[in-house]
C-alpha cells in the first residue's frame, strides 16, 4: 500500500480494456489508488489502469474542488457500470496521464452508476469525473472524446504537481 507512479500516455496499458476486479485484487488496488490520489493534492480521480493495474476499479473524490457542487464524497467504485444518463454538456478536462493538455469534452450531466458496493446518482462535475475515470477502464482517454483535435485541445500554461 503506497503512492505509486501514474502511467503517462502513450503507455500502451492506458489503451487496454481492464478486466473485472476479483476480490483478491480489490483491497490492494483500492489502497494504492487512494494513497496515490491523496499524494497528489489536486487529484479528483484515478483509475486502476493508470497504475498499470488492468482491473475495473476507480476512485473519485471531488470534495473541496471549486467546481464540485453536490457530490457523494469519496467514491471507491469496483466494477462500475453506467446504468443511465441524462443531458449533455461540454466541459474542460485534464488527465494525470496526459499532463500537458486539457480539452473540451462532451459528457452526460446526470448519471446512474451501479457498482459492487451498491448504486447511486451523480451530476455535474462529479458525474463528469466518474465518466472520465470509467472511460479509463475501457482504454478510452479524454482526447478520444473531443469533437475537434484542432479547436478543443489546449496546452496547459502552467504545470502543477
Ligand atoms: Zn484520466
> Order of strands side by side in the largest beta sheet?
1-2-3
Helix-residue proportion: 10-25%
The biggest beta sheet is recorded as:
3 strands, antiparallel
Q: What's the tally of helices? A: 2
Shape: globular
Ligands bound, unique = zinc ion
Mean pLDDT: 95
Beta-strand level of the residues, as a percent range? 25-35%
Write down the Rg.
15 Å
Q: How far apart lie the N and C ends?
A: 21 Å
Q: What's the total number of strands? A: 9
Helix and strand element order: HEEEEEEEEHE
| Class based on secondary structure composition and strand pairing | alpha+beta
Q: How is this fold's topology laid out?
A:
Blueprint lengths: L22 H17 L5 E3 L9 E4 L14 E4 L2 E6 L2 E7 L2 E10 L2 E6 L2 E6 H13 L16 E3 L6
Antiparallel strand pairs: 1-2, 2-3, 4-7, 5-6, 6-9, 7-8
Written description of the protein model:
The two termini are 21 Å apart. The protein has helices at 23-39, 124-136, and strands at residues 45-47, 57-60, 75-78, 81-86, 89-95, 98-107, 110-115, 118-123, 153-155. Strands 1-2-3 form a 3-stranded antiparallel beta sheet, with helices on both faces. It is globular and about 45 Å long. It has 161 residues and is of the alpha+beta class. A hairpin with a 2-residue loop joins strand 7 and strand 8. The mean pLDDT is 95. Zinc ion (ZN) binds at residues 95-97, 132, 136.
Provide a quick synopsis of the model:
By secondary structure, the chain is an alpha+beta fold. The protein is 19% helix and 30% strand.
Amino acid at each position: 500500500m503506497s503512492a505509486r507512479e501514474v502511467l503517462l500516455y502513450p503507455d500502451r496499458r492506458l489503451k487496454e480494456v481492464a478486466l473485472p476486479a476479483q476480490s483478491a485484487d480489490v483491497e490492494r488496488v483500492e489502497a494504492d489508488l487512494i494513497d496515490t490520489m491523496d499524494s497528489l493534492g489536486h487529484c479528483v480521480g484515478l483509475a486502476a489502469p493508470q497504475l498499470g493495474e488492468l482491473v475495473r476499479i476507480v476512485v473519485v473524490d471531488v470534495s473541496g474542488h471549486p467546481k464540485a457542487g453536490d457530490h457523494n464524497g469519496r467514491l471507491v467504485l469496483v466494477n462500475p457500470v453506467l446504468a443511465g444518463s441524462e443531458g449533455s454538456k461540454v466541459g474542460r478536462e485534464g488527465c494525470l496521464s496526459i499532463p500537458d493538455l486539457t480539452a473540451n469534452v462532451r459528457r452526460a450531466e446526470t448519471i446512474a452508476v451501479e457498482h459492487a458496493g451498491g448504486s447511486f446518482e451523480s451530476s455535474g462535475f462529479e458525474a463528469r469525473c466518474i465518466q472520465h475515470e470509467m472511460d479509463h477502464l475501457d482504454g478510452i482517454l479524454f482526447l478520444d472524446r473531443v469533437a475537434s483535435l484542432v479547436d478543443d485541445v489546449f496546452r496547459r500554461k502552467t504545470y502543477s504537481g
